[in-house]
Amino acid sequence: MTLSARTFAWLLVPLTLMSALIALTAGPSGLSVAGVWQALWQPDAGVNGLIVWQLRLPRLLLALCVGALLGLCGALIQGLFRNPLAEPGLMGVSSGATLAVVATLIFAPGLLALLPNPLETLARPAIAFIGGLIATTLVMLLGRDNTHSPLRLILAGVAFNMVAAAGLGLCSYLASNEQLRTLTFWTLGSFGAATWQAVGVTAAILVGIALLAWPLHKPLNALLLGESECRHLGFQVPRLKRRVIFLCAAGVGAAVAFTGIIGFIGLVVPHMVRLLVGPDHRRVLPLSLGFGALLTLWADWLARTVISPAELPVGIVTALLGGPFFIYLIHRQRSTGL
Amino acid sequence: MSLVGEHLRLQLAPGRIAIDDVSVQLNAGEVLALIGQNGAGKSSLLNLLSGEHVANAGQVRLHEKPITDWPGEDRARLLAVLPQQHSLNFAFRVAEVVALGRYPHGTGKRRDDAIVAEAMALCELSDLAQRNIHEISGGERQRVHLARVLAQIWDAQPEGHRFLLLDEPAASLDLHHQQMLFQAVRRFARRGVGVLLVVHDLNLAARYADRVLLLDHGRAVCTGRPADVLTIDTIYTHFGLSVTVQPHPHHDCPLIISH
Question: In chain A, whose CA is at the least distance from the CA of B75?
Fold first, then answer.
């Protein structure tokens, strides 16, 4: 199936707006679409205004921003590894970022509390970014291979994820009861703790990363031909690699910082986009951003409605949907090219 | 105006010398064929000239400037390389792959589209333009990448003559398309492009190359006009093959017939 990229983009906008409106109605205190609409325009009007503006809207926007980041980073990292099965999670970015944040929360809880409030909000993505950057760099170094096959790299990612899981296990073993709840939140992922501050930080990082990622669409396309071909076309491959890894660590770090691990968005989204519009990064990068936002919005909506009035961690929803899809991808790769 | 390698030496691993003191000069407008047995160092020499490998000794210069000193994009406008193998995992269309060859240029979409169309026509790919690269045959894919590197050096450049390095371009092509390939190569050479190609078929080398360079165990054995290099003795010594060499009935070149 092919779809013109323009059609896809034009479909995404109204679909996202409509989904957003519906998502705003979902929650323990049922609001109608009309009620939500009214509350949106009158933020000060009663309980509904409070619910929409202080609870649901930040959550919705955080889900959109995080989804956009995960979709975009997934597209970047799949392009870098020339493998549609690559995912920020597989490369250790997510677990490295999570481990860094969790370890700080468990072992040095006073550290974050020392900072004044706006800085504290910024400190989390910064720590997650450093954790993600260390993780990817380690995985890249361990997985270096002269045969240009991504196998070693993926094995290095698996090994790193094991070590990170052990680190998280250690953290949870040493954690107090209260910390344990926080930790569960991190490892399962949730948009429940969304604040306007978190939305602001994530949105700013999203804009920055999107602007820096856009000029990479040409070298990433050239890289799909192979590293030598990319260089023969005039691009500097090591610099490209460094940039992509840096952007992914920052993007996934920002996503992880406020919501914990939300897997499979980064894997599934670029893949579906490629199925629809082909592998050209000029289209894949922006559409993965948009589609990632939409899909994450849906996942969060599902997480909140399936066992309403309680809610599931959104990471469980994405993993439940993404796992089977991953198996389908592996099966597909055997029969046809991607 | 040339692509020059002087006293090149390439050691791939301790005790494994791929290229041992080889000097080569590729002039504008000439077709130079690299010949030799498997493992003689043909691809290694090509990789040294393209800047893919860095020589352990000696230097490669493009228009008098060391190849490593060229900014990537400037070099890519003058030097295109067709590797032996392609590993494109993603489902690009034929026209999209060819268009990648225009990345080093800022000539605008209209000019790029025209060049892509011409390059595809030259490589007899126009009918396949919208096909998925995975749905076509290996030989067709080879032509797609050929069209891509031709599109990369399609127009004359103010910085100097262009060069084209092809590693076994004829390997997976049928006879008709082998001829198409070499006619395209000659056409580019007439326009001043220096072409270096690795080729196994000595008759193709004899017919289409201005000069051949014979490599054996990483050393340059001899270089010269096909008629001077491709003799019964050298072919026996360096390919271990008994042949008859006679003038080609239709072209001004030797014809090699194996026994």
Answer: A234
- Touching check for B51 and chain A: CB below 8 Å? yes
Residues 108 to 147 of A: which have CB under 8 A from any B CB? Answer: none
**B41-66 burial: b if 16+ Cβ within 10 Å, else e:** bbbbbbbbbbbbbebeebebbbbeee
User: What's the average pLDDT block by block, 10 residues per block, for chain A (338 residues)?
Assistant: 74 90 78 78 76 86 95 93 79 87 82 70 83 87 70 85 91 85 78 86 94 96 92 93 88 86 88 89 95 94 84 87 81 59
By the CB < 8 Å criterion, does A337 face chain B? yes
Name residue, tokens 């352990």.
B56
**ipTM of predicted assembly, 2 dp:** 0.92
pLDDT one-digit tens code per residue, B23-58: 999 999 999 999 999 989 999 999 999 999 999 999
* Phi, psi for residue B66 in degrees, rounded to 5: -50, 135
Whether residue A324 lies within 8 A of chain B, CB to CB, comes out as no
Domains (range + CATH), chain A: 59-335 (1.10.3470.10)
Does the N-terminal peptide bond of residue A309 adopt cis geometry, omega within 30 degrees of 0?
Answer: yes
- B129 close to A (CB below 8 A): no
Check if B80 contacts A (Cβ < 8 Å): yes
What residues of chain A, 279 to 298, have a C-beta less than 8 Å from chain B? Answer: 279-280
Which chain B residues contact residue A336 at CB under 8 A?
A: 134
Arch. (CATH architecture) of B2-92+157-258: 3-Layer(aba) Sandwich (3.40)
